[in-house]
Write a structure and sequence with these properties.
Length: about 425
């Protein structure tokens, strides 16, 4: 692709790193580099307050919508037609400091550097952080950006109940982030998300930049197995109806489905709760989640069918009942080839090594791709560790990614679709 010969700006890497460190103090997990800022908790509110303060300090127009998405724009009329960066600042309960936060703070840095340079652009710039990207407390993941693009109604978002019994609308009110701006939100000219890879590919191959081609499909299911609670010492093995035994077999089956299918298929049982969860009681019920992902929709559907089949057979043999509920289901997404070409050309122009790749993790960009040309930039995750306080990306990679985000955003202000 021919490089747009437009304006350029040099970001301030130290300022970006300082902000990442400061935001990471909120919800910091003691003795680690990581954070716990689950969506709509007090620590999420504190993180939001800090980032909104930074946005306002730059004189940006800040809008908070009815599901708590925050968009800051250089244009007093808002972000319509802007080149927008963004991601999320909520984390999983045992999260790292870069997942999501990098994309938001790098977007802010691009805007600050551009304003400081006094450059006039053809289009406004904007940076967003979307509510509840992680989905750990309230499903589905990417909830805020899904609502932003009209994929989930505001009413449906506000009434989602978490495993802890709290409700999104109440929690949004409680933390003061049920805003007035409408949702779906305004349509930007383009959307670019800088993110850590969260997997091992770039680190293993010694490549600096991932040019993301798309995001794999995601299927989350909650399974509730209901059996017969009974005495652990007196109930003969052949007379048990044990939901934990079923959950264990289903977990092993899910893993086998993924390993047998191969390719990009993965399967994870990330949550299992028993009731009453006591040493000498056969449980009454077991609730577990299964996360299935694949870059190919047909293969993902095959994995889902196999899982359903195994769940029915295993629970039938034990004589227990199963309730199944879909928590999230998103088909694979392909990003805009023109944006990917632009990212790749700009990176190579700077002498950075690049690789095209799919994303294994879900991202807000996959929702924004429904309404505007969208792309993603990955930087390496050391040892591929993420959703873990030990998540780490080297400073030089963070700064190189942010500079590439700046180059890309400014180039896209010159591009017409
Ligand atoms: C969400 O970010 C996910 O990929 O689980
Ligand atoms: Mn993320
Ligand atoms: Mn995450």
């Amino acid at each position: 692709m021919e490089l747009p010969s437009g304006p350029s700006v040099t970001i301030n890497g130290s300022r970006l790193l300082a902000r990442i460190t400061e935001l990471a103090q909120i919800g910091a997990i003691e003795g680690t580099q990581g954070c716990s800022r689950l969506a709509f908790t007090d620590s999420d509110r504190e993180g939001r307050d800090l980032v909104v303060t930074w946005m306002r300090d730059l004189g940006l127009t800040v809008s908070i919508d009815v599901v708590g998405n925050v968009v800051a724009s250089t244009n007093s009329d808002g972000a319509a037609g802007a080149v927008m960066a963004g991601s999320h600042i909520d984390t999983v309960g045992t999260g790292g400091r870069y997942d999501g936060n990098l994309g938001v703070l790098a977007g802010l840095e691009v805007i600050e550097a551009t304003l400081a340079a006094g450059i006039t652009l053809n289009r406004p710039l904007a940076v967003a952080f979307f509510s509840n990207e992680e989905g750990s407390r309230y499903p589905p993941d990417m909830m805020g950006s899904l609502a932003y693009v009209g994929g989930m109604s505001v009413e449906a978002v506000l009434e989602v109940e978490g495993a802890d019994g709290t409700v999104v609308g109440d929690e949004l009110d409680r933390i003061g982030y049920r805003g007035a701006a409408p949702c779906p939100g305004v349509v930007p000219h383009a959307f670019v998300e800088l993110h850590i890879e969260q997997g091992p590919v770039l680190d293993n191959e010694g490549i600096q930049i991932g040019v993301v081609e798309g995001v794999q499909g995601i299927s989350w299911t909650e399974l509730r197995f209901v059996g017969q609670s009974n005495h652990a010492g007196t109930t003969p093995m052949n007379l048990r109806r044990d939901p934990m035994a079923v959950a264990a077999e289903v977990a092993v089956a899910a893993r086998a489905i993924a390993t047998d299918m191969g390719g990009t298929q993965v399967a994870t049982v990330g949550s299992l709760t028993l009731h009453p969860n006591l040493v000498n009681v056969v449980p009454a019920h077991a609730t577990m989640t299964v996360d299935l992902r694949n870059t190919d929709e047909d293969s993902l559907q095959r994995a889902e069918h196999q899982l359903t089949d195994r769940v029915q057979k295993i629970s039938g043999l034990e004589g227990i009942t199963v309730e199944s509920r879909s928590l999230a289901r998103f088909e694979p997404v392909e990003f805009d080839e023109r944006v990917a070409n632009c990212i790749e050309a700009l990176a190579q122009h700077k002498g950075l090594s690049t690789r095209r790749m799919p994303s294994g993790a879900g991202h807000d960009a996959q929702m924004m791709a429904r309404i505007c040309p969208t792309g993603m930039i990955f930087v390496p995750s050391v040892d591929g560790i993420s959703h873990n306080p030990a998540e780490h990306t080297d400073d030089k990679d963070l700064v190189a990614g942010a500079q590439l985000l700046a180059d890309t955003m400014l180039a896209l202000t010159e591009v017409t679709w």
